[in-house]
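Predicting structure from sequence has reshaped protein science. With that in mind, we have picked out one protein's residues alongside their backbone shape tokens:
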Amino acid sequence: MTKQTFLQGTLILIFAGVITRLLGFINRLVVARVMGEEGIGLYMMALPTMMLFITVTQLGLPIAISKRVAEANANNDTHKIKRIMVVAFILTMSTSMICTLLLFFSAPFIAENFFTDPRTIYPLYAVCPIIPVMAFAGILKGYFQGMQNMRPQSFALVLEQVVRISCVALLIQLFLPFGIEFAAAGAMVSVIFGEAASLIYMFVVFKRRKTIRIRNDFFSFVGTFKKTVKELFTIAIPSTGSRLVNSFSTFLEPIIITQALAITGISSAIATKQYGELTGYVMPLLFLPTFITHSLSIALLPSIAEAEATKNNTFILHRIHQAIRISFASGAIATIVLSLFASQILMYMYGTSNASMILTFMAPFFLFLYIQAPLQAALQALDLAKPAMWNSVFGTTLKLGLLFTLTSHPSFGILGAAIAMSISVVFVTLLHIRSLNKWIQFSIPLADLAKMLGLVGSTWLVARMLHSVLVFFNNQLLIFIGICILLFIIYCLFLLLFRFLTREELSQIPFIQKWI
């Protein structure tokens, strides 16, 4: 099976991430334009429930599989890899059946008692078939990540978005005559088709390229079930805890926010609309750079796991610093653009700038989010998933408390939710840094902090001048696109000036190799 280096694997995932993000935005634009703020509010309310049940179903197995397969592959232990895959399939089959039935029968209760809008029952029903599909896909992703072959997962991500976007407009239009709630369910059904296509593709690749045969001696591996479960769960349980805390938080967020807004006297329809603006318009923009940090995290985990197995601490610190530096570089430009051009971006994309104040406020704080994912991946790779879990617990507890306290205050309203989310992001990132410092003496050097400030400050000054040019030309779209291209070119020059990219890293980019 083809194996890539850390940066090569990251670049493959980033390239796929660029395509999927662009397609994802097209998908969101279609959903937002056709269904409107109320429809996307119903859709976004059901989405956290889906993620919560997926997290419970997967039990953190994709991360555990990635680490254990990477260790076994480093030792050429195909017997152990096969044992891991057999046990993972059995566990996932059991949990997916339980969780799917649980959601199906609890959907009416969740819609009636947890959400302020009972119409969410229809998109909740549509979530049920997605659970087993995503759960089994997670196992295959973990396997390919552990083998450090990022191509199958990357192609699967692109395929999933292509199928989803091909179906979403048709399904929304098909169900819209029956009501906005059915249109939201139709949008969710498009997710099913996309995920199914992704799973089928990865399964075909797995069968063709695998170095193990699952069916051979299947029951002999079942006999070692307990031992393998213990090996996986030492990583999976804390990782599940972290994901479960985050998923449970996103599950509670729409409930807390809408209930808190209701306390201030806001009607159910307006609360749904405001929640849709925050989670359907603002949050996708803030999470845009995370496809790079997520790609880094996926490639970082098996790389550090191999180094940790050989006790190469110097290499571990080098990888973490490298991941943080690249993550910061990818997030800084997004932070500046979203802060300065918030109203223009929202107007161009969604036809409204109602949430521009929230986007401008949150963007600087979410720069901490962009370095959070590599930090968490490093903790998991070092068998420090338990401290990572507790960091998430503390951050989530703080966020949920602030969500209700601030959002229910008339002077804050929906802005209170934005403040709570921003504080939580900063808090968890600092806790992750503290944990790595405690266990492996990791720290960010003052020289690197100075370079970060220099990069952001220089780019901000240039962006401010370009913003004035855009205003002078009455916010014309073509002018905005030209300004973004120019700003990106200048930013790349700043990256080289402040040495955020090394010669070695640039040499691994195919179209740059011949110029170095």
Remarks:
- The radius of gyration is 23 Å.
- Residues 191 and 457 are 40 Å apart (CA to CA).
- The first helix runs from residue 6 to 58.
- The chain has two domains: 6-444, 445-516.
